[in-house]
Protein backbone atom coordinates (compact mmCIF):
# COMPACT_ATOMS: atom_id res chain seq x y z
CA UNK A 1 0.00 0.00 0.00
CA UNK A 2 1.45 3.39 -1.00
CA UNK A 3 1.57 6.33 1.42
CA UNK A 4 -1.02 8.12 -0.71
CA UNK A 5 -3.42 5.19 -0.42
CA UNK A 6 -2.85 5.08 3.33
CA UNK A 7 -3.61 8.79 3.61
CA UNK A 8 -6.87 8.40 1.73
CA UNK A 9 -8.02 5.44 3.79
CA UNK A 10 -7.14 7.22 7.04
CA UNK A 11 -9.54 10.06 6.25
CA UNK A 12 -12.37 8.03 4.79
CA UNK A 13 -15.55 8.76 6.71
CA UNK A 14 -14.20 11.89 8.42
CA UNK A 15 -16.81 14.69 8.62
CA UNK A 16 -14.62 16.92 6.46
CA UNK A 17 -14.96 14.38 3.62
CA UNK A 18 -18.70 13.88 3.77
CA UNK A 19 -21.24 15.79 1.73
CA UNK A 20 -23.56 17.97 3.74
CA UNK A 21 -27.06 19.04 2.80
CA UNK A 22 -28.55 22.37 3.95
CA UNK A 23 -32.31 22.69 4.32
CA UNK A 24 -34.28 25.91 4.84
CA UNK A 25 -37.67 25.74 6.54
CA UNK A 26 -39.93 28.70 7.12
CA UNK A 27 -42.90 29.61 9.29
CA UNK A 28 -44.71 26.79 11.05
CA UNK A 29 -42.48 24.21 9.35
CA UNK A 30 -39.64 25.28 11.65
CA UNK A 31 -41.42 23.51 14.51
CA UNK A 32 -40.58 20.14 12.95
CA UNK A 33 -36.84 20.62 13.54
CA UNK A 34 -36.73 22.56 16.81
CA UNK A 35 -36.36 19.48 19.01
CA UNK A 36 -33.29 18.39 17.03
CA UNK A 37 -31.88 21.91 17.12
CA UNK A 38 -32.47 22.13 20.88
CA UNK A 39 -30.47 18.93 21.40
CA UNK A 40 -27.70 20.28 19.18
CA UNK A 41 -27.63 23.59 21.05
CA UNK A 42 -27.49 21.82 24.41
CA UNK A 43 -24.41 19.98 23.16
CA UNK A 44 -22.58 22.82 21.40
CA UNK A 45 -23.32 25.68 23.81
CA UNK A 46 -21.81 23.87 26.78
CA UNK A 47 -18.47 25.04 25.38
CA UNK A 48 -16.83 28.44 25.71
CA UNK A 49 -18.01 31.19 25.73
CA UNK A 50 -21.68 30.32 26.29
CA UNK A 51 -21.12 27.66 28.97
CA UNK A 52 -24.77 26.58 29.04
CA UNK A 53 -25.63 23.70 31.32
CA UNK A 54 -26.80 21.34 28.57
CA UNK A 55 -30.49 21.50 29.49
CA UNK A 56 -32.38 20.45 26.34
CA UNK A 57 -35.75 21.61 27.66
CA UNK A 58 -34.36 25.08 28.41
CA UNK A 59 -32.87 25.30 24.92
CA UNK A 60 -36.19 24.20 23.41
CA UNK A 61 -38.03 26.93 25.31
CA UNK A 62 -35.63 29.54 23.93
CA UNK A 63 -36.51 28.45 20.38
CA UNK A 64 -40.28 28.63 20.78
CA UNK A 65 -40.71 32.15 19.33
CA UNK A 66 -39.31 30.85 16.04
CA UNK A 67 -42.06 28.24 15.76
CA UNK A 68 -44.74 30.80 16.55
CA UNK A 69 -43.66 33.31 13.90
CA UNK A 70 -44.99 32.82 10.37
CA UNK A 71 -42.01 34.81 9.04
CA UNK A 72 -39.33 32.71 10.73
CA UNK A 73 -36.60 30.62 9.13
CA UNK A 74 -34.57 27.62 10.26
CA UNK A 75 -31.42 26.78 8.30
CA UNK A 76 -30.34 23.21 9.06
CA UNK A 77 -27.13 21.43 8.08
CA UNK A 78 -27.45 17.65 7.79
CA UNK A 79 -24.91 14.86 7.52
CA UNK A 80 -27.19 12.02 6.47
CA UNK A 81 -29.91 11.95 9.12
CA UNK A 82 -27.80 13.79 11.72
CA UNK A 83 -28.32 17.49 12.43
CA UNK A 84 -24.81 18.94 12.65
CA UNK A 85 -25.55 22.66 12.42
CA UNK A 86 -28.45 25.06 12.54
CA UNK A 87 -29.33 28.74 12.57
CA UNK A 88 -32.64 30.48 13.26
CA UNK A 89 -34.11 33.86 12.50
CA UNK A 90 -37.39 35.74 12.83
CA UNK A 91 -38.65 39.33 13.05
CA UNK A 92 -37.64 41.05 16.25
CA UNK A 93 -41.22 42.20 16.81
CA UNK A 94 -42.23 38.53 17.14
CA UNK A 95 -39.84 38.15 20.08
CA UNK A 96 -40.54 39.26 23.64
CA UNK A 97 -37.06 38.88 25.04
CA UNK A 98 -34.12 41.07 25.96
CA UNK A 99 -33.20 42.18 22.45
CA UNK A 100 -36.62 43.67 21.75
CA UNK A 101 -36.56 45.40 25.13
CA UNK A 102 -33.12 46.80 24.31
CA UNK A 103 -34.44 48.22 21.04
CA UNK A 104 -37.38 49.84 22.78
CA UNK A 105 -35.22 51.30 25.57
CA UNK A 106 -32.92 52.76 22.92
CA UNK A 107 -35.89 54.38 21.19
CA UNK A 108 -35.54 52.20 18.10
CA UNK A 109 -38.37 50.61 16.14
CA UNK A 110 -38.28 46.84 16.70
CA UNK A 111 -40.45 46.23 13.63
CA UNK A 112 -37.55 47.23 11.37
CA UNK A 113 -35.10 44.58 12.63
CA UNK A 114 -34.76 40.86 11.90
CA UNK A 115 -33.35 38.81 14.77
CA UNK A 116 -30.70 36.17 14.07
CA UNK A 117 -31.54 33.86 16.94
CA UNK A 118 -28.44 31.76 17.35
CA UNK A 119 -26.18 29.68 15.12
CA UNK A 120 -24.53 26.41 16.21
CA UNK A 121 -22.28 23.93 14.43
CA UNK A 122 -20.46 20.83 15.64
CA UNK A 123 -16.67 21.42 15.75
CA UNK A 124 -15.88 18.65 13.26
CA UNK A 125 -17.89 20.44 10.56
CA UNK A 126 -16.39 23.90 10.94
CA UNK A 127 -14.23 25.45 8.24
CA UNK A 128 -16.56 24.48 5.40
CA UNK A 129 -18.27 27.86 4.86
CA UNK A 130 -21.42 26.74 6.66
CA UNK A 131 -21.31 29.74 8.99
CA UNK A 132 -21.41 32.06 5.96
CA UNK A 133 -24.27 30.02 4.52
CA UNK A 134 -26.22 30.29 7.76
CA UNK A 135 -25.90 34.07 7.77
CA UNK A 136 -26.62 34.50 4.06
CA UNK A 137 -29.77 32.36 4.09
CA UNK A 138 -31.24 34.27 7.02
CA UNK A 139 -30.31 37.68 5.65
CA UNK A 140 -31.76 36.81 2.24
CA UNK A 141 -34.94 35.56 3.88
CA UNK A 142 -35.30 38.82 5.80
CA UNK A 143 -34.65 40.77 2.61
CA UNK A 144 -37.28 38.76 0.73
CA UNK A 145 -39.89 39.53 3.38
CA UNK A 146 -39.36 43.27 2.98
CA UNK A 147 -39.66 46.02 5.54
CA UNK A 148 -36.50 45.28 7.51
CA UNK A 149 -33.66 47.78 7.81
CA UNK A 150 -31.20 45.69 9.80
CA UNK A 151 -30.32 42.28 11.15
CA UNK A 152 -29.25 41.83 14.77
CA UNK A 153 -27.95 39.14 17.08
CA UNK A 154 -26.60 38.81 20.62
CA UNK A 155 -23.22 37.43 21.61
CA UNK A 156 -21.87 36.27 24.96
CA UNK A 157 -18.72 38.02 26.17
CA UNK A 158 -16.42 36.81 28.95
CA UNK A 159 -13.26 38.17 30.51
CA UNK A 160 -9.95 37.27 28.89
CA UNK A 161 -8.66 36.18 32.28
CA UNK A 162 -11.56 33.81 32.98
CA UNK A 163 -9.85 30.52 34.00
CA UNK A 164 -12.28 28.53 31.84
CA UNK A 165 -11.12 30.24 28.66
CA UNK A 166 -9.50 27.73 26.25
CA UNK A 167 -5.74 28.29 25.83
CA UNK A 168 -6.02 28.85 22.09
CA UNK A 169 -9.66 29.87 21.90
CA UNK A 170 -10.59 32.47 19.29
CA UNK A 171 -13.68 34.62 19.22
CA UNK A 172 -15.96 35.17 16.23
CA UNK A 173 -15.63 38.95 16.16
CA UNK A 174 -13.39 39.05 13.10
CA UNK A 175 -15.81 36.82 11.18
CA UNK A 176 -18.80 38.95 12.16
CA UNK A 177 -17.00 42.12 11.08
CA UNK A 178 -16.23 40.57 7.69
CA UNK A 179 -19.96 39.97 7.35
CA UNK A 180 -20.54 43.69 7.92
CA UNK A 181 -21.65 43.52 11.56
CA UNK A 182 -20.61 45.99 14.23
CA UNK A 183 -21.01 45.88 17.99
CA UNK A 184 -23.90 48.22 18.83
CA UNK A 185 -23.17 50.07 22.06
CA UNK A 186 -26.63 51.70 22.08
CA UNK A 187 -28.36 48.38 22.69
CA UNK A 188 -27.95 47.36 26.33
CA UNK A 189 -28.58 43.69 27.08
CA UNK A 190 -28.77 41.94 30.48
CA UNK A 191 -26.36 39.13 31.45
CA UNK A 192 -26.98 35.94 29.43
CA UNK A 193 -29.36 33.28 30.64
CA UNK A 194 -27.89 30.11 32.07
CA UNK A 195 -26.15 28.87 35.22
CA UNK A 196 -24.83 31.50 37.59
CA UNK A 197 -21.23 30.21 37.45
CA UNK A 198 -20.57 31.46 40.96
CA UNK A 199 -16.95 32.29 41.70
CA UNK A 200 -16.12 33.18 38.09
CA UNK A 201 -16.14 36.58 36.32
CA UNK A 202 -19.63 37.60 35.22
CA UNK A 203 -20.59 37.20 31.58
CA UNK A 204 -22.00 39.98 29.41
CA UNK A 205 -24.16 40.13 26.30
CA UNK A 206 -23.50 42.43 23.38
CA UNK A 207 -25.66 43.28 20.38
CA UNK A 208 -24.25 43.20 16.85
CA UNK A 209 -26.11 44.81 13.95
CA UNK A 210 -25.70 45.50 10.24
CA UNK A 211 -27.83 47.38 7.70
CA UNK A 212 -29.77 44.89 5.64
CA UNK A 213 -29.62 46.86 2.40
CA UNK A 214 -25.96 46.01 1.97
CA UNK A 215 -26.24 42.82 -0.08
CA UNK A 216 -24.10 39.75 0.43
Automatic annotation (TrEMBL):
Residues 20-207 form the N-acetyltransferase domain. InterPro entries: Acyl_CoA_acyltransferase, GNAT_dom. This is GNAT family N-acetyltransferase. It comes from Novilysobacter avium.
Amino acid sequence: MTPLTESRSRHDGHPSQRKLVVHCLTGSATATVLDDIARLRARVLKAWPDLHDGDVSAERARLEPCALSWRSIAVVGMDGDQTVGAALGFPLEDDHGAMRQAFELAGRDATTAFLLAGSVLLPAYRGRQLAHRFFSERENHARSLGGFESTVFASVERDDNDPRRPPFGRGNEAFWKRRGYMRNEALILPPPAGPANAGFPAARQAAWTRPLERGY
